[in-house]
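SAMPLE LOG
Freezer: B-3
Tube label: C17
Construct: single chain, 130 aa
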Amino acid sequence: MIINSGLIVSLIFLITLTIMHTENETASDRVRQHGLSFLTRHFGTATVITSGYQNGGRLAVELVDEHGESIAMLSVNIPESSHMLGENEFYAKTWSENEEIAEDALASGIFRETGRTSGGFLKAKIWTFS
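STRUCTURE (predicted):
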């Protein structure tokens, strides 16, 4: 059997382009899929991206800009307290570098505080989607 090396090279090139195209679309596709966004004071429009934490599998909430670049991780993973979370609830990181972006997120109306915290030393607030 004779194999055309030019055809093989062309197929490899086509597969490589397809993979590159798929990888480049991933961030912007994730942004379009969720559709929840709000205006921040210093970062422009922030779009909400949800996923799950590897350790504990609880809801992870990230904020990205219009290019799909991360602005902040709005959630924090506290696996030892994950049993306190209900469906669509997460521990919000509202302190340190997240203080202002968390205020913007809460003011957007997309999120609401449940009035509960993680307990323990950290006392992270539990948020959910409105």
